[in-house]
Specification:
With 79 residues, the chain is mainly alpha-helical. The mean pLDDT is 87. It has a domain of 52 residues. The protein contains two helices and no strands. The longest helix has 38 residues. This is Phage protein. It comes from Cereibacter sphaeroides (strain ATCC 17025 / ATH 2.4.3).
Length: 79
């Protein structure tokens, strides 16, 4: 799976389009609103994760490899 933040943007706009369709029944609007809530919840987590990655990259850019021992080692056991 190779999703990008641009894909997330596309999903959000697609949901917006579904919500703005004219002639939706009340039931369908309710379904789409619930779907939108779920999408926004996941999107928030993806955005927070991207923010954290950006902060780590900035730390590395500002301090070089000397900061690496203080960052969590992804993919390595902490045992």
């Amino acid at each position: 799976m190779k999703n990008k933040l641009s894909d997330l943007n596309n999903h959000l706009f697609a949901q917006l389009e579904r919500l703005s369709e004219e002639g939706l029944s009340e039931e369908r609007i309710e379904q789409e609103a619930k779907r939108a809530e779920a999408i926004v919840s996941v999107a928030d987590q993806i955005t927070k994760n991207a923010e954290l990655q950006l902060k780590a990259a900035k730390l590395f850019a500002d301090h070089g490899s000397q900061i690496l021992p203080m960052l969590p080692q992804i993919g390595k056991s902490t045992e």
